[in-house]
Amino acid sequence: MKLLLIYPKWKKLPGQTTFNLPPHGPVVFAAALPGYVNVSFIDENVKDIDFEEDCDLVAISMMLSTQVKRGWEIADKFRERGKKVIFGGISTMLHAEDTVNHADSIFLGEAEGRMEAILDDFNRGELKKVYNFMLQNPAIESVGPARRDLYDRDLYNHKGVQMVDLFHASRGCRFSCYPCAVTYLGGRAFRPRPIDKVVEELATIENNRLFVVDNSLAQNKEWEKELFREMIPFKKKWISHTIEDDPEILDLAAQAGAWYVYQAVYDTSDYIKERVKRYHDYNIGVEGTILLGLDNQTEDDIKRLIDFLLEINLDLAEFTVMTPFPHTKGYDDYLRQGRIFDFDWNHYNAGQVVFQPKNMTAERLQELYDYAWDMFYQDESQEAKMFRLFCNVALREMKEGTYRQRNRELANKSFGKDIVRKI
Hints:
Elements: E1 2-7, H1 25-31, E2 38-43, E3 57-61, H2 68-80, E4 84-88, H3 90-94, H4 96-99, E5 105-108, H5 115-123, E6 130-132, E7 157-158, E8 161-162, E9 165-167, E10 170-171, H6 182-186, E11 191-192, H7 195-202, E12 209-212, H8 221-231, E13 237-240, H9 247-256, E14 258-264, H10 270-281, E15 285-292, H11 299-309, E16 316-321, H12 329-336, H13 362-376, H14 382-400, H15 405-415, H16 417-422
Parallel strand pairs: 1-2, 1-3, 3-4, 4-5, 5-6, 9-12, 12-13, 13-14, 14-15, 15-16
Antiparallel strand pairs: 7-8, 10-11
Helix pairs in contact: 7-8, 8-9, 11-13
């Protein structure tokens, strides 16, 4: 059986450094397919779709709200050619009510242990319109190594920088943050993968650089410490969301190869300032994630926050505007209050204001979002700061003997031998 797996493209935000990471969801899904399925994969962000490709079934995996309209277009074209189309992924779950109108079937939930029965339905010509497993998560022990062999590696580098591979050590989240849909998607239980399964997958990943995409690693201290201890021998260099603010854990994370972390910066407190400093004390970089437009923020609050960011020695900053994604508390509140004025999912990219803020106009919030990017990167561009982080990790890799010849060839080509020799 031939299955064509597609990850739709989306429009990148203007003014920001554009690069493409190898997507995680599709290759995790592919690992859950029965062995008799022959999978071909197209990430439309780096490769065009051949709508005449020979296949038995088209599967469209969508992560972002900004992918859904393109995903629907792709499905419509294949269905016009007589192909059956099934959708899955995070944004299929968030936009199921509309997506079902463009599909022969939609899959809601996690795929492990489910796909063989669904494909049996397909082979009998009895494919159901909806398969909903959102309240029935599979055993976390069943999650195996992702199908990274489906990637075309040459398509995932940016100006000589080898892009990270995505990897997850847990699912679910015990927190319930206001803008986030994780509680709806996977429940509020933290579900760590068994450490032996984590080690098994790490052993299959050739890339020396990883993005550990777990919602938060700071959910169970003992598990976190065990995870980092087991990661040390692999000598990977990795990025993650927040880790525990604990000296023992920070030390283990540094030994395990923590490259930099995403740290939410939500106020101008000494705690945040010291938090960033503690990361740096362990040679861990920090990318601040800053959400603008919450109801407790005034225009002056946002300006003070931006000034604060320039004082605390962040390595990078990523600004987003509050976006009421479907099935979040924000969406429910703003919809009830009549504050959402834009329902074009292409605009739900966390860089475009689609609702009426409480303490300013939508136009003013959009201006402050642009102002934040301009001010933080006024002296050094985002790309230059990213290159600085790359240089730091490259030096560490060379010191440990894990800097690969392929990295050097790409860097020589993009930056020149003189620059690469200096790092």
